[in-house]
Write a structure and sequence with these properties.
Elements lengths: L1 H29 L6 H8 L4 E5 L2 E9 L5 E9 L2 E10 L12
Antiparallel strand pairs: 1-2, 2-3, 3-4
């Protein structure tokens, strides 16, 4: 019975991790060119990191679950409006300290 309980909770944990990443993908699909920083913040919240360069601003959001890779979302702004975005994945490495955890 104990093994069955462990298996069941492990399955639930895995399922919730997948649902979280799906939810993040859904949020990313809501971002469109021309949105304001306020609109982006309403969808994603405050960014994990912000960068400035030549009048452009970039917001970075990073998400990691315990058993998956880290997904990075980059959103670029000019004059407070979205002009571009990018996503990429940092592969999970069990022996590497993950610095992207939110």
């Amino acid at each position: 019975m104990k093994k069955l309980s462990i298996l069941f909770f492990s399955f639930l944990f895995l399922l919730s991790s997948c649902a979280t990443m799906k939810s993040l993908d859904d949020k990313m699909m809501k971002i469109t060119e021309g949105m304001s920083q306020k609109e982006v913040k309403e969808i994603f919240g405050a960014p994990n990191f912000r960068r400035f360069d030549n009048g452009r601003e970039e917001w970075e959001y990073s998400y990691t679950t315990v058993i998956t890779d880290t997904k990075i979302f980059l959103i670029r702004f000019e004059s407070g409006r979205v002009v571009g975005m990018d996503t990429f994945v940092v592969p999970y490495e069990p022996n590497r300290e993950n610095t992207f955890v939110r």
